[in-house]
Design a protein that fits this description.
The complex is a heterodimer of chains A (279) and B (63). With 279 residues, chain A is of the alpha+beta class. Chain A is 21% helix and 35% strand. Chain A has helices at residues 22-34, 67-76, 218-227, 253-278, and strands spanning 2-8, 12-18, 38-46, 50-52, 58-60, 104-112, 115-118, 123-124, 138-142, 147-157, 168-181, 184-187, 209-212, 231-247. In chain A, the strands form 4 sheets. In chain A, strands 1, 2, 11, 12, 13 and 14 form a 6-stranded antiparallel sheet that branches. In chain A, a hairpin with a 5-residue loop joins strand 4 (50-52) and strand 5. In chain A, helix 1 (22-34) crosses helix 4. Chain A is flat. Chain B is mainly α and 63 residues long. Chain B has a single domain, classed as Homeodomain-like (Arc Repressor Mutant, subunit A). Chain B is 46% helix and 0% strand. Chain B has 4 helices and no strands. The relative contact order of chain B is 0.23. Classes of the chains: A alpha+beta (279), B mainly alpha (63).
């Protein structure tokens, strides 16, 4: 199996996997979605009762949303994660599940209305680098005389347990399309080739099928003029797979991919050891 | 009520895009181009913004 990165941005990546099978690509997809861990807010403690400001004005700790809703919204905010630093809380060697800087991040939100509470109001206790990368996510709106004082604890988890711990989204893959105009073989994903998603795609994986092009379709028309053909031969190559995914900003695409491949390698070697012990 | 933090279908963060979307479309920009510029390319994320009714101000006094 060979992996080639076709394009990589901090939050989106496109890969070409060669000399492979769909099963390998699907294993990678499943690990990306469900098994790469990240930090997310899990416990939220709300201050109840009146909140007195420095100027002596008294606020009520109420808001238009239920506390449960606010806790849920806090959980969904992407928290910057360093996978080399954090341990799972239940298995943390430093504190044995008590909570320490190597397994938990504590945030506070202290905001008085009127105004919009956003992810920028999440103050990490400790390192300022732990502020959410996206500072503009609305959490709740407070009215006059309303205030919010909240302590939130983020822990490491994975996508199997809750979508807030899912480090990637939009994960998908496709077989590399085969495209032939007359006797000429074309690279369908080359931006120079006018590849029509509607009329040049085939579901065939064994051999190519002949597809008639539509002269009333803009992309097809361009293709017909360029290569002087009325039809194309289209198919799919299941040994070459194009995969794409995005991250939510907690981790970089590179960190996610490396972590996913590590998890896969570990799992396969465990299975291999157990299988060899059988014989 | 208030814009959801993430897309219901794919999980992309869409909450932060809504205030920017409202601001830019009010200035007369083409909504489709604003959504493209905000990086919302899938239709699941685009509908989160397009079909949202911001009613938080209506319930604000009842907190």
């Amino acid at each position: 199996m060979k992996i080639k990165v076709l394009s990589a941005a901090p939050e989106a990546m496109r890969l070409l996997i060669e000399e492979t099978e769909p099963a390998y690509a699907n294993a990678l997809r499943r690990v990306l979605v469900a098994d790469v861990p990240k930090m997310a807010i899990e416990d939220v403690e709300f201050h109840l009762g009146p909140i007195r400001a420095e100027d002596g004005k008294e606020y009520e700790s109420v808001s238009p949303l239920f506390d449960e809703m606010i806790a849920h919204r806090l959980g969904l905010i992407p928290i910057p994660t360093d996978l080399g630093l954090y341990n799972r809380r239940e298995g943390c060697p430093n504190c044995h599940g008590e909570g320490c800087p190597n397994c938990t991040i504590i945030y506070s939100v202290n905001k008085r209305g009127p105004g919009l509470v956003t992810s920028a109001d999440l103050e990490p206790i400790g390192d300022a680098k732990l502020r959410p990368a996206d500072q503009k996510i609305p959490i709740v709106k407070l009215g006059d005389g309303q205030a919010m004082l909240v302590y939130a604890t983020a822990i490491l988890g994975d996508g199997k347990d809750h979508a807030k711990w899912q480090s990637t989204h939009g994960v998908g893959y496709r077989y590399y399309p085969i495209l032939k105009a007359g006797t000429k073989t074309l690279d369908a994903l080359d931006p120079e080739v006018p590849f029509c998603e509607s009329h040049m795609q085939s579901t065939a994986t064994e051999e190519e099928e002949t597809l008639e092009l539509a002269s009333d379709c803009k992309t097809c028309k361009k293709f017909m003029d360029l290569y002087k053909v009325e039809s194309v031969k289209a198919g799919n190559d299941p040994t070459r797979i194009v995969m794409e995914f995005e991250t939510d900003g907690s981790l970089s695409t590179k960190a996610v991919l490396v972590a996913a491949l590590d998890i896969l390698a570990k799992r396969f070697s465990e299975t291999a050891t157990q299988a060899s012990a059988l014989a | 009520m208030i814009i959801p933090v993430r897309c219901f279908t794919c999980g992309k963060v869409v909450g932060s895009a809504f205030p920017a979307f409202v601001e830019k479309t009010r200035q007369g920009e083409n909504p489709a181009q604003v959504l493209d510029a905000l990086g919302l390319k899938r239709y699941c994320c685009r509908r989160m913004i397009l079909s949202h009714a911001e009613l938080i101000d209506e319930v604000l006094p009842f907190g």
